[in-house]
Design goal:
Blueprint lengths: L2 E7 L3 E7 L5 E8 L5 H15 L6 E7 L2 H8 L6 E8 L13 H7 L2 E6 L14 H8 L8 E6 L7 H14 L4 E4 L8 H31 L6 E5 L5 E3 H6 L7 H14 L4 E6 L4 E7 L2 E2 L6 E3 L2 E3 L7 E3 L5 E3 L3 E5 L4 H4 L10 H8 L10 H4 L4 H22 L6 E6 L13 E5 L7 H8 L2 E10 L5 H18 L8 E9 L7 E10 L3
Parallel strand pairs: 1-4, 4-9, 5-6, 5-7, 7-8, 11-19, 19-20
Antiparallel strand pairs: 1-2, 2-3, 9-10, 11-12, 12-13, 12-16, 14-15, 17-18, 21-23, 22-23
Length: about 525
């Protein structure tokens, strides 16, 4: 038997599952997410393995979706001091790096900026020669002071030559052990957003390396020395721990994507809207061909505009722990739901209390009659109508065309969803949906995506597509994919009329099985 374990860290709970090669759920585990994240993660992992009670050699992979990186950026805690190098003078000196960043975040990573001559045109030709000697001289003042560097050059995703040359100089001056992120490995169009994403990646790299090492140590203590460790990526795929050590920014929204991917695994519906209803929020995403739809707009992370691949998500403050007073939310009792909600014996009216009474259901530890001792059924019915209106309004926001869409509700609060919603042709609440996030983590494939800009006047379209596919395949192999299993999942071309030469942005996504 080939057993995979999936662990997903949510804002309220950390969920775990073990599944076999046929995606049959063998065991489940749920614990409160700890303040430090790690404690709850390790507890869940340990309990899943204990519950299995099988030969540990049957456990082949452990997949983890974690918010460590996102929390560090949001809380400004555990971040590395970063030197941001921009290769782009004189063309790119108008807006310096991190100009629009929140002050506290800039202070947390040191606000170290260095700009030198260089960069390329969209065709790949040099704007001006790279000032290698100038960079070498300026780096001397950072020797022994900086251990993380982010390098960004104009149009480096078309021609990364200057970034690669700069990387070699940084290693020469600051040392081979310097942590370096090159922007052409992170994203594509949009210099400022690509630069921001690169800096954030550098800021959380050493943190994620520590987390990964801690998890590996735990696996060894549990007797899982030969297990392959993977992490959930933002696009609903996974990557090896070695890959994530280099590019942790690709994992910050992994838990959000896991639920959407898990909804597909549980229902086999490839195209639908997914409501992931947790203790604090309803995260609304879209399944497109079995994977989360990616955002086409810059995504704000910790107050910073970024443009690496992220799921297209609407998060609304309506979950099982949402407090009901004059309004529905936005405050929530969160993980204290089982202590503070009236139906559990507490004193706070929550969305769970309302839904239990309107839908006339009870769980093992709930008594919905307690709610009726304090609130009339008319009041609860009116409140539930408000909840329905919130869900319907936001369902409409994620649709890209007219007509009703299929809706899948997962998460611990999915029982609250009405039997019908305006705009939904059908509503599915799959069995095991409360573990959709962990199931998504455990069943995901290795994935990679490459975005490039081309002038079809300078290169044939077929050659450009083949080149991009080959780069995506190479990246997937780096992430841990079996080369023979890789297949193209999507090819997308977007015209860039503001650039000459029949220019397009070409993106290719590939997926493959784990080695």
């Amino acid at each position: 038997m080939n057993i995979r374990i999936g662990i997903d860290v949510g804002s309220t709970n950390t969920d775990g599952v073990a599944i076999d090669e046929n995606n049959k759920i063998l065991v489940t585990e749920k614990n409160q997410t700890s303040a430090d994240i790690s404690t709850g993660l390790f507890k869940t992992l340990t309990n899943v393995i204990k519950k299995l009670g099988t030969d540990k050699s049957q456990i082949k992979q452990v997949m983890i979706g974690t918010t460590h990186g996102l929390n560090a950026i949001s809380a400004r805690v555990g971040l590395e001091k970063v030197l941001a190098i921009r290769i782009g003078l004189p063309a790119g000196e108008g807006i310096p790096p991190m100009s629009d960043w929140p002050l506290d975040l800039k202070e947390a990573i040191g606000n170290n900026i260095l700009m030198v001559r260089g960069g390329h045109e969209y065709t790949g030709d040099e704007i001006v020669p790279f000032d290698a000697e100038g960079l070498k001289e300026k780096l001397k003042e950072y020797k022994g002071k900086i251990h993380s560097v982010a390098i960004t050059s104009i149009f480096s995703f078309v021609n990364p030559k200057h970034e690669i040359e700069a990387e070699n100089i940084v290693k020469e001056v600051l040392g081979d052990d310097t942590s370096i992120t090159l922007s052409h490995n992170i994203s594509s169009l949009g210099l400022l957003e690509r630069e921001n994403s690169t800096i954030l990646n550098s800021a959380i790299r050493l943190l994620m390396i520590k987390i990964i090492n801690s998890i590996k140590e735990t696996l060894v203590k549990l007797g899982l020395n030969a297990v392959n460790l993977y992490f959930s990526q933002n696009d609903g795929t996974v990557a090896s721990s070695d890959f994530v050590e280099k590019f942790p920014i690709f994992t910050v929204a992994g838990p959000i994507s896991n639920s959407i991917r898990g909804a597909f695994v549980l229902t086999h519906v490839e195209n639908a809207v997914v409501f992931d209803i947790g203790g604090t929020t309803t995260n609304i995403g879209v399944l497109t061909n079995g994977y989360p739809r990616e955002s086409s707009n810059p995504v704000i992370i910790g107050g910073v505009r970024t443009n690496f691949r992220m799921p297209d998500i609407i998060a609304i403050p309506l979950g099982g722990g949402t407090i009901i007073d004059k309004n529905v939310g936005p405050r929530s009792v969160g993980y204290k739901l089982t202590k503070e909600a009236i139906s559990f014996g507490g004193d706070t009216l929550t969305a769970t209390d309302v839904a239990l009474n309107i839908k006339k259901i009870d769980f093992d530890r709930t008594d919905r009659k307690r709610v009726l001792e304090k609130y009339s059924i008319d009041y609860l019915d009116n409140t539930y109508s408000k909840m329905r209106a919130i869900w319907e309004e936001n369902l409409d926001k994620v649709k890209v065309k007219g007509g009703d869409v299929e809706l899948i509700a997962v998460g611990g609060g999915s029982f609250m969803i009405p039997n019908n919603l305006k705009g939904a042709s059908k509503i599915k609440i799959p069995e095991g949906g409360q573990y959709a996030n962990a199931i998504g983590a455990a069943t995901s494939l290795i994935g990679a995506k490459i975005e490039k800009a081309y002038s079809y006047d300078a290169i044939k379209r077929d050659d450009a597509i083949l080149e991009t596919i080959n780069e995506a395949n190479s990246l997937a192999i780096q992430a841990g994919a079996l080369p023979s299993s890789i297949e193209v999942k999507e090819i997308d071309e977007v015209s860039m009329p503001y650039l000459p030469g029949n220019s397009v942005k070409l993106s290719v996504k590939v997926v493959g099985k784990m080695i």
